[in-house]
Amino acid sequence: MEEQNTQEQKLRKIMFSLIALAVVLAGVLAYVWFERTSLVNDLNLEKEDLTAQMIALQNDYATLSSDYDTINSQLDSSREEVSQLIERIKKTEATNRAKMRQYEKELGTLRSIMRNYIVQIDSLNTLNRKLTADAAAARKEAAESRRVSQELSKTVENLSGQVATGSVIKGRAIRLDAYNSSNKITDRSSRVVRLMTTLSLVENDLAPKGPIRVYIRVKDPNGIILTAGDQQTFTVNGEPLIASASREVDYQGKDVELSIYLNGIPEYVKGIYTVEAYTEQSLLGTAELMLR
């Protein structure tokens, strides 16, 4: 009988020990579950905050606009990237922290790109206002010059000087575009296979008629003149210059539209490219192109 009591006491001790262990395990499991739930909630909040930031950036991109087709095309591309990133965030679990950190970096990059767009648009708008003001001032000055010329008699030397100045051919609507291998305009530096400069020679009855060669000088973001194949040179007002490419057209005193291609450049880097167009008389004008 005494031995049976001893056995029962041992069983009760074992049972109490197991109960105590079960209570401890239940407490540990409850703590782990609580911590995991708290972490998942925190990660979900981070995902919601990241999504809200992306939507805010999307709204900021929607408000950006410019009067320049090239920038508008670049803006459309960036808007599409923002939309795709929002969709990827929504489809990714909040617990995938590596992906969320990647999306945060992409958000920072898109913000930086947007700031660059704002700076570029502001710069172009400022330049456009200045050019508009300069043009208005030039028209006013020209009108005044015509009035004065009608009122005053000119000497033969002055008349000759006016004719020489007026005979210089001028250019307008100068534009620089990049094309990919499918012959479509692109702003991705890695896809560019050639550049094309377009411009118009302005009507001028005083200018000499006949063949005239137009030269372009394309500079990369580091200011280096791009050349392919045989290097061309020309002279403007006695100064020798290196040309990227050139084309001869028949000028008969009327408007002439022309395009000049630059091929054979092995690589294009990101940044702003500048083109200068010349005849051997003068600079016709400049244009810029941003590749990313």
Number of separate helices: 4
Task: Return residue spans where pLDDT drops below 50 for at least 5 consecutive residues.
Answer: 158-163
User: Quick one: overall form?
Assistant: elongated
By helix and strand content, what is the structural category? alpha+beta
Number of strands: 9
Overall radius of gyration: 36 Å
Return the string of H and E elements. HHHHEEEEEEEEE
Approximate helicity band: 40-55%
> How do the strands line up in the largest sheet?
6-3-8-9
**Can you summarize the main beta sheet?**
4 strands, antiparallel
CA distance, first residue to last residue: 93 Å
Question: What portion of residues belong to β-strands?
Answer: 15-25%
Mean pLDDT over the full residue set: 81
Descriptors for this entry?
three-stranded antiparallel beta sheet; four-stranded antiparallel beta sheet; 292 residues
Descriptive overview:
The chain is α+β, with helices and mostly antiparallel strands and 292 residues long. Helices cover 52% and strands 23% of the residues. It has four helices and nine strands. The protein has helices at 2-63, 69-91, 97-151, 156-166, and strands at 171-179, 194-201, 210-219, 232-236, 239-243, 245-251, 256-262, 271-278, 283-291. The strands form three sheets. A four-stranded antiparallel beta sheet has the order 6-3-8-9, with no helix packed on it. A three-stranded antiparallel beta sheet has the order 1-2-7, with no helix packed on it. Strand 4 and strand 5 (239-243) form a beta hairpin. Helix 1 (2-63) runs parallel beside helix 3 and helix 2 (69-91) runs antiparallel to helix 3 (97-151). It is elongated and about 140 Å long. Mean pLDDT is 81; it is low at 158-163.
